[in-house]
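Inverse folding, one chain.
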């Protein structure tokens, strides 16, 4: 039977069915009624395992709802970090960062990796060739930087991410675009220079946008976190169900 993976993030919910460690099509949802959205995915097929990873705590009522939708429920939220304990990642890492590192270790066995997650935040995490965590950093993501400039200044407009290769005609807007995008690029390039032997992986909503600007050889895996959840779920099935 197939498994259903659900990732409840800061701004959106992503979900995918998986067979073993192989992901199917990913679905993205933004809005209220997350439980109804999850229920709608199970209308035609009951998953063997429903794995839900959430940045917020799942309430007891929500847990009961989820348990009724599947044969086995794997819950990963701030109050239930148990799924990640066998993988040697620090407890303070958010589930998405931790799951991404599980996937990176699986994809690039025996290779040290630097994982950039380019979304609401920009996170940078490093693992050595044995998959051991070496540390990481968090800063503002691209759109968050644009919003911060607008919110915390009196004169600067809110600017959206510029289209590739199309500078704004307005000098002020153009300077904001260049400042934010170039700042992130310098940040990324600095991390890469500090660990030049590492495999570089981009993930997150803005991964492709910045990958197009890179001169270095990198890998883009947009659903790295969901892939990690698929691996965790598959290993759970092999150890506890089959």
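Residues assigned per position:
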């Amino acid at each position: 039977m197939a498994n259903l993976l659900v990732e409840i993030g800061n701004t959106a919910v992503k979900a995918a069915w998986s067979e073993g460690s192989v992901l199917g099509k990913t679905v993205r949802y933004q809005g209220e009624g997350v439980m109804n959205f999850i229920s709608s995915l199970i209308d035609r097929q009951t998953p063997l395992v429903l794995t839900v990873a959430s940045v917020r705590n799942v309430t007891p009522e929500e847990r009961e709802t989820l348990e009724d939708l599947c044969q086995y429920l794997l819950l990963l939220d701030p109050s239930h970090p148990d799924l990640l304990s066998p993988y040697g990642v620090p407890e303070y890492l958010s589930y998405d960062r931790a799951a991404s590192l599980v996937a990176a270790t699986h994809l690039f066995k025996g290779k040290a990796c630097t994982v950039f997650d380019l979304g609401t935040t920009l996170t940078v995490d490093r693992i050595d060739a044995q998959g051991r965590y070496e540390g990481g950093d968090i800063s503002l993501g691209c759109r968050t930087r644009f919003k911060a400039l607008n919110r915390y200044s009196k004169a600067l407009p809110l600017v959206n991410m510029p289209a590739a290769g199309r500078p704004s005609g307005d000098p002020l807007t153009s300077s904001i675009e260049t400042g934010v995008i170039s700042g992130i690029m310098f940040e990324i390039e600095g991390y890469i220079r500090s660990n030049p032997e590492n495999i570089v992986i981009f993930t997150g909503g803005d991964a492709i946008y910045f990958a197009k600007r890179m001169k270095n050889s990198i890998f883009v895996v947009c659903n790295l976190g969901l892939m990690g959840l698929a691996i965790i779920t598959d290993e759970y099935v092999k150890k506890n169900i089959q």
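Residues 182 and 210 are 10 Å apart (CA to CA). DSSP finds seven helices and ten strands in the chain.
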